[in-house]
Description:
Blueprint: E1 3-6, H1 12-23, E2 27-32, E3 44-46, H2 52-58, E4 64-68, H3 76-89, E5 94-98, H4 110-120, E6 125-130, H5 135-138, H6 143-149, E7 151-154, H7 166-178, E8 184-188, H8 196-207, E9 212-215, H9 218-227, H10 232-246, H11 258-261, H12 268-274
Parallel strand pairs: 1-2, 1-4, 2-3, 4-5, 5-6, 6-8, 7-9
Helix pairs in contact: 1-7, 3-4, 8-12, 9-10
Amino acid sequence: MQKVLVTGASGVLGRAIVQAGVGTGLAVRQGVRNSSKANPAVESTHLDYGDPLTITVALEGISALVLMAPPLDANAPALLGPVVTAAKAAGVQQIVLISAFGVNHNEQAPMRIVEHLVIDSGVPYTILRPNFFMENFSEDPQSTGIREQNVIYLAAGDGKTSFISVKDIAAVAPAALKQLLTGVEFDLTGPEPLDHFEVAKIISKASGRTVVYHSLTEEQMLEGARSHGMPEPAVAYLAILYGVVRAGHAAGITPYPETMTGKRPLSFESFAAQVDWN
């Protein structure tokens, strides 16, 4: 049976991919830095991008790799490049890279550089570029502000975003593996573009509370990130991301993931109704 290594398996998207893979009958190995955060019902291995030995061990007996970078990590090429090299050496037959929406329009973007590393590796590949996660509001980074203060603080202006649930992203990874979709790139979006005023209104309706979006200046948002200990390279990355949102470049709608999974992606209203906002 094909065995798939899922990196970043303890994160919000990684957990969803593990669950989706197991649910479709794939043999999954979780790659995690902290074993206590792994799904105890699924095989796991210690994986630290900074430790080459853990990469080699994690790839033993693996035929496919789902690869993702730590969030907002401008050092992604240096971290993931050795994993791609090791995957080729280990005979991995397919790499599914979780990239980011819109990076193909900026050749200097860290994840675009990683895309080229994967494409140029010679290993059959599938590149998935999901838009911003709906779960950014129900889990970190926005959940605390919403649950404790009924506020969303971001420098998104009135730019719209076609938010997508990690459940819909996760369903694409096993589909790409089972359908052997290689040499292709897919931009993944939700079904509708929303600005953050609309997001706050939908969450208000679902939670029974009045949640308000405060549109910050970019500098206000970045100073807030710094005050919470965010490293400067991640702060710069954050600035780029929300500059894209304000410019309207995150509003696009694509036919994916529906054409791959046969299922219409979750609307933000449906997502919000499923969340416990208390």
